[in-house]
Amino acid sequence: MSSPLETLWEEVRELTFGTTPQIDRLHTPPTPLHFLRHYLSQNKPFILSASAATTLRWPATALWSSTSYLRQTLSNSTVSLHLTPTGHADSIATHPTSPNSLCFASAHVQQTPFSAAIDAIQSSSIDSDGGFVAYLQQQNDCFRGEYGALAGDCDSDVGWATEAIGSLPEAVNLWIGNGLSETSFHKDHYENLYAVVTGEKHFVLLPPTDVHRMYIRGYPAATYTYSQETGEFKLELENPVRHVPWCSVNPYPSPENKEKEMSEFPLYHNGPKPFEVTVKAGEILYLPSMWFHHVRQTPDPRGLTIAVNYWYDMQFDIKYAYFNFLQSLPPPPKPTSCKSRSLDDSLLNENESDCDEKCREE
């Protein structure tokens, strides 16, 4: 017999997406009123297709295909380059001093001339002898700061979203990476308009009502440090210890770990199928606030994926109150064969303020 929460998961999909659930794909930009009524107020995602003549009439869609243009325009810019050994930052990793435990790992960040940063991204590699994955993904309104020289290549906001929401974006961010970077499941308290300029982004999406399927647990925070001399990474725990509530599920477990992951996280693997969408160059994804999302990317022929996203503040209204109440409820019963991690399950519904900061890898 299904639990009330499991019934909720199914009903949300049926009421929001119908009997053949899929993310809407629009071929013309919505009017502000249409966006407000059918998507923003319903917390419902959609993709604005590249087939729309007015989707992205940005100089960036032509100019940014030239790496030399980017290098020249940002020749005097120093940017925040994020480095990891695996391409996974803001994600769960093996605890540095306890191999049977886990921690929340953040990237090593260093200030780098833009041209050198592009070189690092294009030369990224993962192998047994070392290597690193570089990603430009600073999320502090970086497009209007570190990359201000490119500001004229894109719209300063998304007009129909700005009018519907009633405010300008809180932050605009630029993302430049390669096919090795991957973003673990997380959510943000922003209405997100995510525009891909080159390459593709692959999203796995779950609505906020599926919070129990994410197995949010508290992990001790740690940060990678990287030595330029030795080319080695070291993962260091924060002192004093700080626990970060984070999603435990990996939607793409390796073949050798798949059975273990399915046993450990049955609510995710045995529940309703997540939504999987690909956002291509010239397209915009509306990612509603508090939706859980996991992101991978496919680069363009140069080995780069470039995107710009606009973060609009969400309304902390009755929807937010409903979500807080929902996550306070105990999860549905687990099968008796389910193995649990050696972490305190009381952290499952821990306050999530730490993971709702703007520092998120996309």
From TrEMBL:
| Alphabetized Pfam families for the sequence | Cupin_8
Database matches in InterPro entries: Cupin_8, JmjC_dom, RmlC-like_jellyroll
Superkingdom per UniProt: Eukaryota
Where in this chain does the record put each JmjC domain?
Answer: 133-327
From the UniProt entry, list the residue stretches annotated as the region Disordered. Answer: 332-362
Please name the SMART domains in this protein's record. Answer: JmjC
| Recorded family membership | Belongs to the JARID1 histone demethylase family.
Its protein name is: JmjC domain-containing protein
- Lineage, uppermost ranks: Eukaryota, Viridiplantae, Streptophyta, Embryophyta, Tracheophyta
